[in-house]
Write a structure and sequence with these properties.
The protein has 407 residues and is an alpha+beta fold. It is built from nine helices and 22 strands. It is globular, with a radius of gyration of 37 Å.
Amino acid sequence: MSLLQEDHIGAHQFNKMGDVRPEVFGAGRDSDQLTPSFDKQHHTIASSASTSATSVASTPSMTAEVNSSPPGATMMPTASSAMEQNESGEYTTRTLIAPSALQGRRTSSFPSNAVPTIDVPSVSMRRTAGPAVPAPVQVSSPIRGPPPEQPRARTSNFFLSQPPPLRREAWSETDATTFSVRGGNYLADGKKMNSPPSLFKLMAVDLVQSPVKLFRGMCSHPNERIQRALQREAQSGMRELPDFIFCVNIVVPGKSNYHLAIYMGLEDIAVLREPNFACGRLMQKFFFGDSDEFRNETFKLIPRVVKGNIVVRKAVASKPAIIGKKLKQTYVRTDRFLELIIDIGSNSVAEKIVRVAKNFAKTLEVDMAFVLEGKEIEFLPEHVLGAVRLLNVDFKVQDGQRVVLPF
């Protein structure tokens, strides 16, 4: 640290070339008479007329001297000053003033190893072309990427066994990152990207028969797994289910109506309302908005035949489809779940395709991913909500034999 032998306090400024000059406050002295130097390597400012810190430390005593001030100027005490740069890029000036100078004494001698000093508060400034200004406030812009990957949804043995679900070997959770969804700049370049991991985690799958179509939903049925779990929660006071359940219920018509109910859970419901993420802004409107029309125009199914004969592969095109544009969709909503019921029988073409797939189901492996379509820049990129794989479902003997009566 060096001693500045100047009787006026200067506000150091950086010009466009990166040099330093003082702006002197007071009359009677030309500012050019003080020529500081700037050590760019150590980010330290020192007067060219100052004594180096090394020489001062080696002298038995040192003298703090205040020069005579010209008429009209204010006499200021001797000060040592240094400027350093911190990690955030700001320059900080630290000044040490001898107390004897504050008392108005022109000279004062004292041992160098016992120098009492007053620590003057530091002043922070950025390296700019103008006067020192405080650092600007940083305002974060909304994030358009995906939220952090969610943990696996909680389940219990009671939930998975009461009532019995679809045979466990006939379903599994498939990897959402293998599906292509609209990227962040899709509206401009038409490019897709691999989806991040699914937000909802697969919990269970039911395949049941019913004499009539259950448009009041499986999640609301008092004898089915969601309502049973909620009843146990109310009795025990302990959570058994995740914060929120999303159920896709596909109704397959026939002599007896089949309901394929796919239950997906999300541990943190706040993710559905997170405005800093594109999918959060979209899910807020889909899960909690009042418009079924918006839901019909937004819910998208991506099918994929993993293993199967050529007839089924041709019938089931592996292209994303907005289901609500062709099929009737019904919604059952509470603060703990949303059930989306798709009536395959509401469209003759869809009914024929599903009938073909059903006849070959025992030899098929089929993936389904559920997505909310982003039609505006604020809702992109897209994100798979959940995905399931159905494997060798046996409609005739092993699977879909449990009967659920209307309530």
